[in-house]
Specification:
Layout lengths: L26 H4 L2 H9 L8 E3 L2 E3 L30 H12 L4 H13 L15 E5 L6 H10 L4 E5 L2 H8 L5 E3 L16 E6 L4 E4 L8 H5 L6 E4 L3 H20 L6 E6 L2 E3 L3 E3 L10 E7 L9 E8 L7 E6 L13 E7 L4 E7 L8 E7 L5 E7 L4 E4 L2 E2 L13 E7 L14 E13 L8 E4 L19 H4 L7 H14 L4 E6 L1 E3 L7 E4 L7 E3 H12 L7 E7 L21 H4 L9 H6 L5
Parallel strand pairs: 3-4, 3-6, 4-5, 6-23, 23-24, 24-28, 25-27
Antiparallel strand pairs: 1-2, 7-8, 9-10, 9-22, 11-14, 12-13, 13-22, 14-21, 15-18, 15-22, 16-17, 16-21, 17-19, 19-20, 26-28
């Protein structure tokens, strides 16, 4: 509800209602607990609190779209600006809808606590937007180097490993870790991934020499070119495909989707419902009245849309109408996003949008105002960083910062009042109507990758027609013998590309233990062969997280040094650090190497 700091003009009615906006009332003098309960609970409900079309609804849109009536008009709202009397029944229905059966004792307890709490003046706290980088496969050759680079940059790191003892011995006893196995969905508990904003996935199926290896995997480190390989442990299907599916599902809610998350509305075949209720100035003695309906043909493309409409009046010192959701049964974690985007048809008025992170009825609302253009469908973006903590129309300077991990309710309001004594310059009494087709989160532009995956060059080659396999790396020639390792790596890539998560897929050629620093070749289309150091790949992965040019790109990379020549670095005179954006800028969208397969499909 609007947070108004005002006195209600004395009248027999206004003296008997609770002033939920901050001033004391005579409610307790008029009714005892017993008489209040007896009178209120026996009140009939002659009119529906909310209506969908012309039908009573205790909430909105609890049906499939196919079952909606073709009618989109409800009976007219009875209020006319300046000519209404206060409606006690509507007041009670409002309280009951949002709070359930009334408990006067609990209400007064809460009210006294709020009125007596001190509110010292301090600067408004800013929202903490920091996030953790999750490294999967953190004890592998690339993964442990990624962890080291992130730590040197001072970034918060969490690692996903199967062996805690090994991880702590390798990465340090204080490493923030998750013990889990991407091949086992049950080990990836959602709680583990709270706070994770970005992912670098360096997990790979284990390939080793048939004749065995040293404890530190020295033969493996030389590269598959130098030994007869076999799969060790879980199969490529489990690790590269099922494992990727499990990892994406585990982090998707935490790292966010490129197109955002739909909180309410109707988009294509996708829809999401919320339990909206009217919350008008009737709660403080006013007579304004609003409702929220579904107009099944009212959207800009002729589909369904919500409509916030009503009549606003300043009678009885009122002046606001709003719709508010019931508290969500499970809080929404929106921390992966930068704000909310409302798709609506403006009417030239200024509105407020309020987000609450507390389940309390009368509490701080994190608020943003926005202007609309009359008669135009428009997208309104409300950055979380712009939200101000407002309580009873005043900024709460010592309020905690907005917590996007714990969103519990949403509210849309048209009011005479702004905050801190300011008035809405577009306010006029009378009827209003605001179609609202969707509310969704968004990631602000420019978007950087949220999930960087280390794949492999050659993933599209095993079935490529006309390819001379004798000139290809061992993994391409032995794809079938190695459990279709490259086939499942490609399937895992496809899952990431189709997930909606902003991504970058790095396909290294043969990995070596050589130092980073050689000149590089970046290509797309999956054609190159060669070698590259694990250290260089780790640096590329970390750089990709911060590059808009790498977002949604798939690319191969190798050094210019041929296999026959070792690459060394003089510790006293190391090569300069690379600006990887120079390479990322050359990349193009939509090139994966699958294009050749799709042009010349090979029967399976």
């Amino acid at each position: 509800m609007d947070c108004l700091s005002m006195q209600i003009s004395p009248s027999p009615l206004s003296s008997s209602i609770p002033n939920l906006q901050g001033s004391a009332s005579h409610f307790g003098r008029k009714f005892s607990n017993r008489s209040l309960n007896r009178q209120l609970l026996s009140s009939p409900f002659p009119k529906p609190f909310l209506q969908l079309d012309d039908r009573p609804q205790s909430f909105v849109y609890r049906q499939s779209l196919a079952s909606l009536s073709s009618r989109t008009k409800r009976g007219p709202i009875s209020a006319e600006a300046g000519n209404q009397s206060w409606d006690f029944g509507r007041f009670f229905r409002t309280i009951y809808f949002f709070n359930g059966p009334p408990s006067p004792a609990k209400f007064f307890e809460s009210l006294i606590e709020k009125l007596s709490s001190p509110s010292p003046s301090k600067p408004v706290n800013n929202m903490d937007t920091s996030g953790i980088v999750l490294v999967a496969g953190a004890t592998g050759g690339v993964g442990r180097r990624v962890v080291d680079i992130l730590r040197k940059k001072g970034l918060p790191v969490r690692v996903l490993v199967r062996n805690e003892e090994k991880a702590r011995k390798m990465l340090g006893p204080d490493i923030d870790l998750i013990v889990g196995d991407i091949t086992k969905e049950s080990t990836l508990v959602p709680e583990y991934f709270k706070g994770v904003r970005k992912v670098i996935n360096a997990v790979s199926v284990i390939v080793g020499p048939k004749e065995g290896d040293t404890p530190d995997r020295a033969k493996y480190s030389q590269g598959i070119k130098f030994f007869e390989p076999e799969i060790k442990g879980d199969s490529p299907e489990k690790v590269e495909y099922i494992g990727m599916k499990n990892l994406i599902n585990a982090v998707k809610g935490s790292v966010g989707l490129r197109n955002g998350k739909l909180l309410f509305g109707f988009e294509d075949n996708n829809s999401r419902e919320l339990a909206w209720g009217a919350l008008d100035d009737v709660v403080m003695g006013g007579v304004s009245e609003s409702t929220f309906q579904i107009d099944r043909r009212g959207s800009e493309i002729g589909g369904p849309t919500g409509v916030f409409k009503g009549v606003v009046s300043t009678a009885n010192n009122g002046g606001f109408t709003s719709i508010r959701t019931k508290n969500f049964s499970v809080p929404e974690d929106l921390s992966a996003y930068d704000g909310l985007e409302l798709r609506l048809k403006g009417d030239g008025r200024k509105y407020k949008f309020i987000i609450r992170t507390s389940s309390d009825w009368d509490t701080v609302g994190y608020t943003a105002s926005f202007d609309t253009v009359a008669g135009q469908w428009q997208s309104i973006r409300l950055p979380f960083s712009s939200l101000r903590p407002i309580f009873r129309a005043r900024t709460v300077s010592d309020a905690p910062p907005f917590d996007p991990t714990n969103v519990l309710s949403l509210q849309l309001m048209f009011s005479k009042f702004e905050s801190d004594g300011k008035l809405n310059p577009t306010f006029v009494e009378g009827a209003f109507e605001l179609p609202l087709s969707s509310i969704r989160t968004y990631i602000k532009d420019p978007i950087c990758p949220r999930f960087v995956h280390v794949g492999s060059a050659g993933v599209t080659r095993p079935d490529r027609p006309g390819l001379d396999l004798s000139k290809q790396p061992p993994a391409v020639r032995l794809n079938k013998e190695l459990g279709f390792i490259l086939t499942f790596k490609l399937k895992g890539e496809d899952l990431l590309r189709e997930s909606g998560i902003p991504y970058a897929i790095v396909r290294p050629c043969a990995l070596t233990e050589e130092p980073a620093g050689a000149d590089l070749i970046f290509e797309q289309g999956d054609n190159i062969t060669g070698k590259i150091s694990r250290e260089e790949i780790a640096r590329i992965c970390v750089a990709a997280l911060e590059s808009t040019y790498a977002c949604d790109k798939t690319f191969e990379v190798k050094s210019v040094i041929p296999f026959s020549e070792p690459f060394t670095v003089d510790p006293e005179n190391p090569p300069p650090e690379k600006d990887y954006d120079i390479y990322f800028k050359t990349l193009k969208d939509g090139i994966t190497g699958k294009e050749i397969l799709e042009q010349s499909p090979v029967p399976v």
